[in-house]
């Protein structure tokens, strides 16, 4: 939602010939503001065609690439749009607010008629001009969010319907280009779009800010377009892919991109400074790492109200950049993912065994085990039924013992109708069962009637072997040294 920015002009006003005039200003980032002031007031790269689009000015950054500036119309940061001229067609990366004739401007700059849009994500300031074009691409995971913006009401929040006056910025409502449906095409991770003669632009997944946020890499000139990587939204508006809306996902995606910085000549973000050095990606990655290591230790914290919900908004500073915004409630996968094992809402108890302090809680352990459970750790009787799709099959007893080792509490046995027992855990009054998904569709009774000790469960040598096997896999995953104690 549009921010409550600073009302009234800031003390460092930037001269502008644009037709829009701000009423609400973005909070001033010193590093960004000074850059924009110099660029807009003194740069010789500026191209302004008010007869075509009085809301945008362009800066030619490469022989075939332009950065297009327009003011934010909702009080947030001013967005960048980019145009890349390929051998046969032009790609426009993001489309801003859709006020003013962007398509006409891009045609003027590139001299090409065939234009496709590549969206980094679906937000107001990045995709509301999509309706001016026929074909727009986005990452597959962004589809649901993007479809919510495909209608003529997206601009309603920008102006008062009675007076037709802008709320955050003065602009002429008649300059909104009428909405037209367009074809939405979906890109997979690292899929390329061809601008003709093998001129490839690659979709780089950089999820976190939104569930399907991505960047684009121009494989020819090495320009990397980052979109809004410097912030994970505190609230997700779609139901799908929740695990993509946390700092940990952005961290994992940035980690992959860091391996490829030798392919990058310059970094072009969705807001702020242009043509940054490739090392910026590493600095952003390092900011996500510092957040994961200690989310509570932020450089700034404030309470924001978004759609009636109070959320804590924190940020960590980025070297040579602004800051990485996040909510402490959306840092790790285990905070945002949907879990389907029994008692998952209770499975948040802390670690008791100091050796395993890197395992945050049982949900986190479940994420780890999901990758570690295999055919060998499965009880021999059920090995035929074990599969990667159903990895908890035959793992309940050794898992319950491992849970107790890490989190303490008790192990209970549930008698099954077909004979035999299923084991689960209780810790400080919280009952959960990490291996319950194999029991789908069956009636399970968690009455804590039959307690078992780890020692009696480990009496069977075959089972003890499987337990040690799984524990060793976990230790390796966590980078733990061999344990001297034999259990
Ligand atoms: Zn955004």
Secondary structure layout plus pairing:
Elements lengths: L5 E2 L13 E2 L1 E2 L4 H13 L3 E2 L9 E6 L2 E5 L10 E6 L4 E4 L8 H9 L4 E4 L5 H4 L7 E5 L3 H6 L20 E2 L12 E5 L4 E3 L5 E6 L8 E5 L4 E5 L19 H12 L7 E4 L9 H15 L6 E7 L2 E9 L5 E4 L6 H4 L25 H11 L23 H12 L2 E6 L5 E7 L2 E3 L17 E3 L1 H4 L3 H17 L10
Helix pairs in contact: 5-6, 9-11
Zinc ion binds next to loops.
Fold and architecture overview:
- The protein is an alpha+beta fold and about 475 residues long.
- It has helices at about 30-40, 100-110, 125, 145-150, 245-260, 280-295, 335, 360-370, 395-405, 455, 460-475, and strands spanning about 5, 20, 25, 45, 55-60, 65-70, 80-85, 90-95, 115-120, 135-140, 170, 185, 190-195, 200-205, 215-220, 225, 265-270, 300-305, 310-315, 325, 410-415, 420-425, 430, 450.
- Strands 4-5-6-7-8-9-10-12 form an eight-stranded mixed β-sheet.
- Strand 8 (about 90-95), helix 2 and strand 9 (about 115-120) form a beta-alpha-beta unit.
- The radius of gyration is 27 Å and the shape is elongated.
- The model has no long low-confidence stretch (mean pLDDT about 95).
- Zinc ion binds near residues 123 and 228.
- The site of zinc ion has 5 residues, from loops.
């Amino acid at each position: 939602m549009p921010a409550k920015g600073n009302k009234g002009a800031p003390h460092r006003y930037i001269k502008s010939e644009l037709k829009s005039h701000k009423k609400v200003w973005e909070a001033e980032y010193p590093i960004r503001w000074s850059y924009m002031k110099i660029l807009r007031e003194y740069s010789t790269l500026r191209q302004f065609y008010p007869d075509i689009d009085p809301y945008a000015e362009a800066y030619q950054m490469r022989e075939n690439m332009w950065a297009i500036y327009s003011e934010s119309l909702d009080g947030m940061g001013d967005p960048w749009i980019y145009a890349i001229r390929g051998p046969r067609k032009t790609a426009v990366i993001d489309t801003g607010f859709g006020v003013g004739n962007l398509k006409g401007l891009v045609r003027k700059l590139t001299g090409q008629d065939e234009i496709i849009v590549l969206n980094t994500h679906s937000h107001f300031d990045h995709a509301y001009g999509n309706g001016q074009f026929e074909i727009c691409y986005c990452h597959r995971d962004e589809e649901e969010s993007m479809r919510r913006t495909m209608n003529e009401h997206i601009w309603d929040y920008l102006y008062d319907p009675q007076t037709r006056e802008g709320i955050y910025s003065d602009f002429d409502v008649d300059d909104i280009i009428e909405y037209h449906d367009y074809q939405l095409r979906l890109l997979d991770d690292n899929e390329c779009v061809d601008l003709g003669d093998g001129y490839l632009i690659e979709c780089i997944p950089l999820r976190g800010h939104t569930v399907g946020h991505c960047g684009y890499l121009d494989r020819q000139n090495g320009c990397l377009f980052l979109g809004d990587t410097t912030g994970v939204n505190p609230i997700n508006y779609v139901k799908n892919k929740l695990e993509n809306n946390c700092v940990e996902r952005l961290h994992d995606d940035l980690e992959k991109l860091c391996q490829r910085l030798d392919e990058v000549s310059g970094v072009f973000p969705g807001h702020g400074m242009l043509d940054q050095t490739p090392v910026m990606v590493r600095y952003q990655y390092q900011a996500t790492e510092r957040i994961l290591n200690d989310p509570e230790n932020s450089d700034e914290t404030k309470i924001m109200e978004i759609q009636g919900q109070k959320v804590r908004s924190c940020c960590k500073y980025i070297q040579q950049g602004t800051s990485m915004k996040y909510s402490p409630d959306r840092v790790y996968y285990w905070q945002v993912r949907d879990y389907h094992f029994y008692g998952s809402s209770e499975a948040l108890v802390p670690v008791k065994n100091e050796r395993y302090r890197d395992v945050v809680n049982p949900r986190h352990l479940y994420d780890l085990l999901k990758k570690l459970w295999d055919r060998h750790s499965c009880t021999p009787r059920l090995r035929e039924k074990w599969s990667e799709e159903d990895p908890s099959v035959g793992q309940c007893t050794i898992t319950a013992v491992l849970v107790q080792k890490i989190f303490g509490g008790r192990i209970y046995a549930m008698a099954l109708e077909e004979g035999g027992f299923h084991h689960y855990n209780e810790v400080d009054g919280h009952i959960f069962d990490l291996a319950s998904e194999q029991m789908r569709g069956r009636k399970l009774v968690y009455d804590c009637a039959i307690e078992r000790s780890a020692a009696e469960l480990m009496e069977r040598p075959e089972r003890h072997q499987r337990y040690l096997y799984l524990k060793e896999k976990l230790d390796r995953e966590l980078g733990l040294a061999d344990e001297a104690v034999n259990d």
